[in-house]
Amino acid sequence: MTARAHQLKVREVVSETADAVSLIFDIPTDLTPRFAYSPGQYLTLRVPSDRTGSVARCYSLSSSPHCDDRPTVTVKRTLGGYASNWLCDNVSPGDILTVLEPAGAFVPRAWTHDLLLCAAGSGITPIISILKSALTLGRGNIVLLYANRDRASVIFGSRLHDLTRRHPRRLTVTHWLESDRGLPTPRDLATWARPYRRHDVYLCGPTGFASTVRQGLGQLRIPDRAIHREDYRSLTDNPFEHHTPVAATPQPVDPTAATVRVDIDGESHTLPWPRTKKLLDVLLDHGIDAPYVCRESACATCVCTVEQGRTRMLRNESLIEEELAQGQTLACQTLPESDDLHISFDP
Ligand SMILES: Cc1cc2nc3c(=O)[nH]c(=O)nc-3n(C[C@H](O)[C@H](O)[C@H](O)COP(=O)(O)OP(=O)(O)OC[C@H]3O[C@@H](n4cnc5c(N)ncnc54)[C@H](O)[C@@H]3O)c2cc1C
């Protein structure tokens, strides 16, 4: 198992709605630096299974590192789902769960901007973390559209109400209940968002909702590439069942390989990088415990920065244009284009 997996004690289980619970974790002092996180990031939980040993599932942190004491994830039951129902039914205070260190790139880079936040259902979890953090750290205005099936499905309803009372000038929350108004259309979204079209956009919700929001914002000429999105999906890979590479596998010499210096966990490694091999695979082959979860470009756990040289990504479902312009790339999809490169995983 990767060295990034740790045993954490569940301190509290909070029932948020009939089908959503929050799990609040205790972080032992020696793990505090490893569980430092940014608003919008997520944890990956190991859920035991008789069938497969375990499954790995990501859950966004609903807590804010800037105003909550302990990291908290909020899990909503998925109809017919395995892990979400297991977590809702089985976890009690005092239980120990195996958890990967925080990851993800759905994180605002600046807190000075106005924010337009769109969430549906359990998509509220990273959004409320960003919202609470922005209220604490920033000065900008924040608008949230939060869509749910009905009033009983609204997660964090009273928390949001409380925050709007405390920050009436800065925070506006619009609840969109399908039971009252039907599903929102792109036109509804465009009408609602028109006054806020210069805000930075963060979006998290099921595919249908996300597509409605993107179409609605498109009508306001907000390009898709400017919308920060978190897409929920279940992982097909399982980082908990892989063995950590402990020693480098001998690699055949490839005379056409590029050379890359990689900074990771405070160490520097200089490695040959074959032209057709993805950076993450190169690192794992050399026994380097690089962070990853999905290996499909969706989770952004393996995000790193190209400090020198040119690279290309085979697939990118996570990074938006602004992040690409800052040199960010996904190690699980990155190939070299230059001969000499420098890549950093460290902040
Ligand atoms: C970055 C990110 C953040 C997320 N944040 C949140 C969040 O904050 N809150 C939230 O609720 N969700 C979140 N999700 C979604 C979450 O990770 C899961 O996808 C969701 O909970 C559904 O998982 P599930 O196992 O319940 O359902 P499914 O994945 O639909 O379960 C069915 C799958 O489980 C398998 N399966 C069934 N039975 C077993 C068994 N006994 N053993 C092994 N496998 C079995 C089936 O083969 C099938 O593949 C997030 C996802 C991502 C990627």
Plain-language structure description:
By secondary structure, this protein is of the alpha/beta class. The chain folds into three domains: 5-103, Translation factors (Elongation Factor Tu (Ef-tu), domain 3, Beta Barrel), CATH 2.40.30; 115-230, 3-Layer(aba) Sandwich (Rossmann fold); 245-344, Ubiquitin-like (UB roll) (Roll), CATH 3.10.20.30. The chain is 20% helix and 32% strand. The strands form four sheets. Strands 4-3-6-1-2-5 form a six-stranded antiparallel beta sheet, with helices on one face. A hairpin with a 2-residue loop joins β1 (5-17) and β2 (20-26). α5 packs across α6. The longest helix is centred in the middle third of the chain and has 14 residues, at 124-137. It binds flavin-adenine dinucleotide.
Indicate the proportion of strand residues. Answer: 25-35%
User: What separation lies between the terminal Cα atoms?
Assistant: 24 Å
- What number of structural domains do the residues give? 3
Largest sheet: 6 strands, antiparallel
Weakly predicted, low-confidence segments: none
The CATH homologous superfamily of the largest domain is termed Nucleotide-binding domain of ferredoxin-NADP reductase (FNR) module
- Helical fraction: 10-25%
Shape designation = globular
The kinds of small molecule bound in this structure are: flavin-adenine dinucleotide
Number of helices: 8
What is the fold-level CATH name, i.e. the topology of the largest domain? Rossmann fold
- Rg result: 21 Å
